[in-house]
Amino acid sequence: MVAALGGLARRLGRACLRSACSRRWASTTTTTATKPSHPANPSPSPSPDHITLLGTAYPRDRWTNVSPSIQAKLGRGLLTVPNHPLRIIKLRIEQYLNETRPGTDPLLAPRAFAIVDSLSPVVTVQQNFDSLLVPADHVSRQPRDTYYVNQNQVLRCHTSAHQVQTLREGHDAVLIAGDVFRRDEIDASHYPAFHQMEGIRLFSHDTLAKYNPEIAGSPIFEQAGSPTYGETAAKQKSHTALAAAVVERDLKATLDGLARHLFGSEIQVRWVDAYFPFTHPSWEMEVLFHGKWLEVLGCGVVQQQILSNAGVENKLGWAFGLGLERLAMVLFGIPDIRLFWSTDSRFVSQFSEAAALNPGANAVKFQEFSRFLSRSKDTTFWLPSSGFEDNDFFELVRSIASDLVENVQMIDSFVHPKTGRTSKCFRVTYRSYERDLSHEEVNLLHNEIRNRLAADLKVELR
Predict the structure, then answer these.
(1) Domain spanning 375-461 has what CATH number?
(2) Composition bias, kind Low complexity: at what positions (predicted)?
(3) Does position 106 have pLDDT exceeding 80, yes or no?
């Protein structure tokens, strides 16, 4: 759920809990309509009626915007590749949350989190948005941000899309991991396919009483109409202040320990108040890393309505979410998010999950192999009167050049003083991690991008 928060959170994948935590959720409404408008230019496909994803054919409609380059990422299974750094981070998180730790404090006891990591990334709009209380007019629903399979199905934007499903299966403690997809800008830390992991933990009255004996003889839910019924900054309207405080304490103690497990026992942690539609109260956890505060994850107390919708009664819970790429880039010193998808054996061979899972093991630092020369090309165009989104341009570039594009940066934008027309200039930087790119190859790619720009996005090239 909080994985919906996305990315490290704010930069990766707008990843963690998303790949951009609060940036993704800070705005609760769009500025136009209560229903997202369909994409103007669906990606071409060999079949005009269906799109095939992971061997299943789905009906195509005006909403379909999953490009062939994204289709090629489905089923890669990076979290199952031995010694892959993303798999290592996932296993280290599982190791911490499920290992037996010494001490008498129940907050230090293992939780027996179930592991859910093989669910299909094709989910319904209801799973991806509605079940998490994302407003119907929220910007995250727009096709400029989300990959629509069709009007009713999407590629999940966060692992939180499976939260209600897993809770209905009866789990009180569960970790959900998988690949997620979001249309995004192009640079070293953003990629349209990335990986999230989230944890959910539920508490019954008896469980909370073990943490705080005062709860044993007290309710954990307020009665409607009582003087203390109502939402505050510290609790939801139906929660008692004491129960909410115990859940918060457990959440922060658990994640503080996780941060020390990943970054080292001396790491400094701080909590920043945040907003997410699916939790209240909510926080972002930051760590002081190399002299700078780094956002690691988003978390909070699960909205009681979500639990009720999942058929969970008489329990409270917390959830957290994080982006695995962000953590791996920071802990292993990986400079470019494209490397996680590389098939070059020089990448994965640098890592060992057996060594990384040993207590007290130091993280191996990535040793960069040969970097080939980059080649940059600029393209300038007048925008159409309406309908142009930067993300549409980024997606078009990716659909043509895929991982041969290292960066796309807007280097100029101005409005003509007489006509009022807007002009933008983007610099596209091409570089492969696996081979040198010739001038001829780059020119062909860039010319195709320019031609598609005019045809698909209705811009006027300059």
Answers:
(1) 3.30.70.380
(2) 27-38
(3) no
